[in-house]
């Protein structure tokens, strides 16, 4: 039986781990990020992979920092056939990568070499890409630079969010990995180098990127909203208040009002953006409150907002 050290953290990783178990691979260890405090109550929460590993009765490791930890030395001594990572969230030391008998394999959420880095799915949605996909690749010291074993593309629909694309790619990644592993085990040297001239990076989303800028068109703003849903969420500055926008719709109309102006507030809440484009806000979340429909939001505002006025700060 082929032995595997599995490394992953979010929901994306769970079907991949379960698929390996269901297909009779021996999971010697599951490595995931440490439990962390979540939400206003700062409740200590297990990672989705830890929850799944506990259900499967698998040994769990949660080093705060894998490199130079006691845990990594123990993992190295296992001399597993394979390391399989899927959105783990830490760099892997070279000596650990070299400790396996066959290969260290990563399930990456983009069509490499496009979108190396920690937020490939987010950038594919934010940039309005028509497709994304999964790459099964060899892990090397340089981030996401390893040779490619297999790839599969999927279409990004106009109503997709990062959350929905994550869900789709998780299943694609599971299936493509299970399809590819037997070939990797039999022929680990059969792989294709990435084209270094086509590399695009996708660094983690910064706090500055969460703000919806008025320099964007309505379509670009909508892509940002979709790309930051469900986490961390994109926001507008409505006067002095932060308003998160979870769902919006690009209007077909054009306006001559300056960007940030209120175009309509009757049965919709429409804001002007760059190049005279208009965005209808559909689901929002005022600071300190829960998500709500735009109608519920407007019902609580009375006549505060006037059509034609600048209501959003750049």
TrEMBL record:
<dbReference type="GO" id="GO:0004479">
    <property type="term" value="F:methionyl-tRNA formyltransferase activity"/>
</dbReference>
<comment type="function">
    <text>Attaches a formyl group to the free amino group of methionyl-tRNA(fMet). The formyl group appears to play a dual role in the initiator identity of N-formylmethionyl-tRNA by promoting its recognition by IF2 and preventing the misappropriation of this tRNA by the elongation apparatus.</text>
</comment>
<dbReference type="InterPro" id="IPR036477">
    <property type="entry name" value="Formyl_transf_N_sf"/>
</dbReference>
<dbReference type="InterPro" id="IPR001555">
    <property type="entry name" value="GART_AS"/>
</dbReference>
<feature type="domain" description="Formyl transferase C-terminal">
    <location>
        <begin position="204"/>
        <end position="301"/>
    </location>
</feature>
<feature type="domain" description="Formyl transferase N-terminal">
    <location>
        <begin position="4"/>
        <end position="180"/>
    </location>
</feature>
<dbReference type="InterPro" id="IPR002376">
    <property type="entry name" value="Formyl_transf_N"/>
</dbReference>
<comment type="similarity">
    <text>Belongs to the Fmt family.</text>
</comment>
<dbReference type="Pfam" id="PF00551">
    <property type="entry name" value="Formyl_trans_N"/>
</dbReference>
<keyword id="KW-0648">Protein biosynthesis</keyword>
<dbReference type="InterPro" id="IPR011034">
    <property type="entry name" value="Formyl_transferase-like_C_sf"/>
</dbReference>
<keyword id="KW-0808">Transferase</keyword>
<dbReference type="Pfam" id="PF02911">
    <property type="entry name" value="Formyl_trans_C"/>
</dbReference>
<feature type="binding site">
    <location>
        <begin position="110"/>
        <end position="113"/>
    </location>
    <ligand>
        <name>(6S)-5,6,7,8-tetrahydrofolate</name>
    </ligand>
</feature>
<protein>
    <recommendedName>
        <fullName>Methionyl-tRNA formyltransferase</fullName>
        <ecNumber>2.1.2.9</ecNumber>
    </recommendedName>
</protein>
<dbReference type="GO" id="GO:0005829">
    <property type="term" value="C:cytosol"/>
</dbReference>
<dbReference type="InterPro" id="IPR044135">
    <property type="entry name" value="Met-tRNA-FMT_C"/>
</dbReference>
<dbReference type="InterPro" id="IPR005794">
    <property type="entry name" value="Fmt"/>
</dbReference>
<dbReference type="InterPro" id="IPR005793">
    <property type="entry name" value="Formyl_trans_C"/>
</dbReference>
<dbReference type="InterPro" id="IPR041711">
    <property type="entry name" value="Met-tRNA-FMT_N"/>
</dbReference>
């Amino acid at each position: 039986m082929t032995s595997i050290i599995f490394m992953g953290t979010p929901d994306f990783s769970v079907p991949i781990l379960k698929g390996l178990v269901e297909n009779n691979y021996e999971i010697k260890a599951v490595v995931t990020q440490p439990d962390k405090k979540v939400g206003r109550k700062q409740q200590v929460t297990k990672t989705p992979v830890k929850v799944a590993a506990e259900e499967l009765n698998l040994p769990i490791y949660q080093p705060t920092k894998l490199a130079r930890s006691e845990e990594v030395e123990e993992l190295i001594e296992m001399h597993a056939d394979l390391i399989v990572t899927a959105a783990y969230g830490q760099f892997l030391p070279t000596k650990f990568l070299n400790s396996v008998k066959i290969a260290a394999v990563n399930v990456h959420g983009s069509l490499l070499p496009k979108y190396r880095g920690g937020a490939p799915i987010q950038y594919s949605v934010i940039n309005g890409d028509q497709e994304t996909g999964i790459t099964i690749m060899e892990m090397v010291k340089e981030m996401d630079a390893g040779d490619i074993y297999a790839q599969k593309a999927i279409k990004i629909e106009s109503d997709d969010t990062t959350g929905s694309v994550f869900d789709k790619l998780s299943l694609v990644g599971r299936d493509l990995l299970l399809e590819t592993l037997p070939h990797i085990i039999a022929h680990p040297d059969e792989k294709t180098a990435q084209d270094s001239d086509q590399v695009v990076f996708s660094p983690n989303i910064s706090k500055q990127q969460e703000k919806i800028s008025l320099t964007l068109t309505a379509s670009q703003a909508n892509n940002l909203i979709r790309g930051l849903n469900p986490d961390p969420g994109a926001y507008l500055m409505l006067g002095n208040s932060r308003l998160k926008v979870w769902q919006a719709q690009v209007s077909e109309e054009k306006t001559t009002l300056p960007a940030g102006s209120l175009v309509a507030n009757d049965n919709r809440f429409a804001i002007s953006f760059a190049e005279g484009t208009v965005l209808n806000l559909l689901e929002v979340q005022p600071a300190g409150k829960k998500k709500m429909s735009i109608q519920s939001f407007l019902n609580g505002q009375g006549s505060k907002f006037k059509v034609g006025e600048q209501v959003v700060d750049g």
